[in-house]
Design goal:
The chain is mainly α. The protein is built from four helices and no strands. 77% of the residues lie in helices and 0% in strands. This is Helix-turn-helix domain-containing protein.
């Protein structure tokens, strides 16, 4: 059973990950710039973005985009 806080965090993380994938899929996009833009928008660090990607989709999937 997930607590309301865990549910909110999971929902936020999924939004962050989806937005990151969307930005990285654009032609000519730079991965670091995409991570910085998403981190700034959601008020988290790049390492948090990295951990979210690792937890939700795996780094290999993120690197292949």
């Amino acid at each position: 059973m997930k607590t309301p806080t865990k549910k909110r965090k999971q929902k936020r993380d999924q939004k962050i990950y989806a937005e990151l994938l969307k930005l990285k899929a654009l032609p000519g996009s730079m991965p670091t710039a995409c991570e910085l833009a998403v981190a700034k928008k959601y008020g988290v660090s790049r390492s948090t973005i990295y951990n979210i990607a690792k937890r939700i989709g795996g780094i290999s999937k993120l690197a292949s985009v």
